[in-house]
Sequence to fold (335 residues):
Amino acid sequence: MQREILEPCNIFEENGSVMQAGWSRTPVFIRNDEQGRSVAKHCEREICFVNNGEVSLYFAVENYVKEFNIKIAVADLKHGGVICDNINKKLRFSKVELPSDDTNGEFTFDDKGITLKLTNTIDGKFIRCAYREFGGFDDFYCNIFLKKNIEESLSELAPFERNRKYYYFKRFMPCYTAQGAIKLGGIEYSLKENTARAYIDKTRYFKPREHQYQRLSADCMLGGKRFSLNLASRVGDNRYGNENCFFYDGKLEKLSQITVKGTPNRNDRPYYYKGGMSALDIMFKPFTVRGEAMAAKLGNTTVIFGRLYGTINRIDYDKPLELDNAQAHMIFSEF
Fold:
């Protein structure tokens, strides 16, 4: 599964089976959904994560066959605390569609006290949202522009459990700076382009049943250079760690299989990640507030905020990457 795809190729063959599995540094996979399968069966999820060191915003849109979800969490990293909320809308007749083109298209949603508008442009993405009585308390509002300034990203395609009838397609894009504002009641967080970063994580899939999924991610500055991490598991044929990677100074570095150890049913305890011959040895330690993990519970999704400690070694690096105190988060979900 560590095969790098270098040339443009379709996702599906004429009979609807996954054409080939692998990963790429550029968006070489061409969506040809009309080939041999009903588009109505596809599910998709888009996550935007914004961080400036003092506040983090988790913003997810989940577009399933029979339901549509919006999940939002605001974490105050300076003072501690998370406020979150989510909305679920059942779809009886037809499902909505998110824009498939990263450089063009718009999506709007207005229902049950929430107004959302996502706009893709050639330079990036606008996120505008107003949510009344967010979390049962104050109103939430955000107006953010994500500006793309990094070219490399991760695209990966895999059959589900080696059955080419089912598939899992992912794009992890830590390519953006963020500017704008987040308002929560009387508190306003300002996002400036030189200090705020953002990534977009997009998945599209068709599989026979729900699946447990977890991902450790970071998007911060190390030694004056941007560092982004994606360690994920439990979707698709992932025994070779096909999603695992990190970015340093805009360059993608692929990782293979990673071993994860944690304490079941204790999200306030550390998680340990190891890979290769001392290639990766890191610990994720959750922030705690009054003895409990600093976490957002959003239906079947939980986002835990914390820090990374440890090192990543690469043969072509002069010295290991030191991750001590690097802000990070874990996402647990079922979809």
Q: What stands out?
A: The longest strand covers residues 163-184. The mean pLDDT is 89. The radius of gyration is 19 Å.
